[in-house]
Design goal:
The chain is mostly helical. It has 17 helices and two strands. Helices cover about 45% and strands about 0% of the residues.
Length: about 425
């Protein structure tokens, strides 16, 4: 009973004690104020100080074990301990003078007699130009990967690459100037039946350009490309803010770049994990949840819709149309009711070759059809179409310019524009 009574009176006693020290005892109240002031001074002094995590070597490296099935919590036994600085017998040993840390590992990877580093890099460069590597599993050069189709060529390129100081530009020049790369990509029925994937390199490469290459090509052909090197990332066009918010609940709203930054190379575009740009995703750009060594290549109707309707590509078509519209060739008289000289210039700017007679005819007919449609459309609709994107100019929004813009959209969507042949 006495214990229960004491428990009941404890809250009242605590309240009385707090009141006494805060309102009656002046000395205690003064000390409390001084203590609070000193605590605040400590907090104010520590607040501007920034903590930076640093990495340093342990005095004694942690032991490494072979784990059962790779499970981190698998039993670790003395028998499964791995010897420090040990490599597979097939690989060269660590140089005696190399430090036993990451710097030593980097030197080991790049020493001239290393059998993998140069071969892997050369294979990836080859895949960039041919659409497939000499080893078709660039992520796996081991026994479970695909064997090289041309092992002697791979060895020679790797050896030459190392002997010439790991010069990447020289390697790229060497590949594109080769007779193999400059072959015609067209194949006879017999060649296609015998080697449908062109593994034996009997013809030139043929594959769709990557998402970044397609965007950069459109910007370059239209004259919009801003070729600044380096600098901060940029945020290109995004179809509304809802998609960004849905994928990035905790992130700030998407702030699109403006001015010339909108037209920088895709290398500098913001590429947020799980939320890549939709126009890039349509062309098999990875979402970056996992490391992607090689991308898949698909050809879908959605890609054509992106090239025809995405703001970035419509704006590029506008700029390309205006560029050829203002060119000296535009003053030439129309042929068959279409500015074929301007169409020829746009076609060459995008594809790198002159249009065939059949291509000129079809593009001229498309121009005439679109001119008839825009001539009947309200003037404000024509002006709105020719105002998509931030690219501004002082040329009046005429039906002729709108029809030429649609023709340039078709050129950017041609097989000759999106395929490397």
């Amino acid at each position: 009973g006495a214990i229960a009574a004491a428990r009941e009176t404890r809250p009242a006693s605590d309240a009385l004690r707090r009141y006494y020290f805060s309102a009656v005892d002046d000395a205690a109240r003064t000390q409390r104020y001084e203590l609070a002031a000193r605590r605040k001074a400590v907090v104010d002094a520590e607040e501007p100080m920034q903590e930076v995590a640093v990495m340093r070597e342990l005095p004694e490296p942690r032991p490494t074990y072979v784990l059962a099935r790779g499970a981190y919590d698998a039993p670790r036994t003395a028998e499964s301990r791995v010897e420090r600085n040990a490599f597979a017998a097939i690989l060269p040993p660590l140089p005696a003078d190399a430090p036993r840390n990451r710097l030593g590992l980097a030197r080991w990877l790049t020493q001239p007699d290393h059998p993998l580093t140069a071969r892997v890099f050369v294979n990836r460069v080859w895949a960039n130009f041919f659409g497939r590597g000499l080893v078709t599993t660039p992520e796996n050069f081991g026994s479970q990967g695909a064997p090289p189709t041309h092992p002697e060529l791979l060895d020679w390129l790797a050896r030459d690459f190392v002997d010439n100081g790991w010069d990447v530009k020289r390697l790229c020049r060497q590949v594109v100037l080769s007779a193999t790369y400059q072959q015609d990509s067209r194949a006879t029925p017999a060649q296609r039946a015998a080697d449908p994937e062109n593994a034996l390199l009997a013809r030139g490469p043929s594959f769709r350009l990557s998402a970044e290459q397609l965007r950069d090509q459109a910007l370059a052909a239209s004259g919009l490309l801003y070729e600044q090197v380096g600098g901060p990332p940029v945020s290109p066009y995004q179809p509304g803010d809802d998609l960004w918010r849905e994928s990035n609940v905790m992130s700030p709203p998407y702030q699109r770049s403006d001015g010339r930054a909108l037209y920088r190379r895709s290398l500098y575009s913001v590429w947020k994990r799980t939320a890549p740009l939709p126009n890039m995703l349509a062309f098999d750009s990875p979402t970056r949840e996992v490391c992607t060594v090689s991308r898949s290549r698909t050809n879908t109707p959605l890609q054509a819709l992106v090239l025809l309707n995405d703001v970035q590509f419509v704006e590029a078509a506008r700029a390309l149309a205006l560029r050829v519209w203002r060119a000296p060739a535009a003053a030439a008289p129309h042929e068959a009711g279409a500015p074929l000289a301007s169409i020829d210039e746009a076609f060459t700017a995008v594809t790198g070759r002159p249009a065939t007679a059949r291509e000129r005819q079809l593009l001229g007919e498309l121009y005439q059809q679109q001119l008839a449609l825009f001539a009947e459309a309200p003037a404000d609709e024509v002006a709105r179409f020719l105002a998509l994107g931030e690219f501004a100019h002082d040329t009046p929004p005429t039906p002729e310019l709108a029809a030429l813009t649609v023709t340039c959209q078709a050129i950017l969507n041609l097989d000759a524009a999106i395929m490397r042949r």
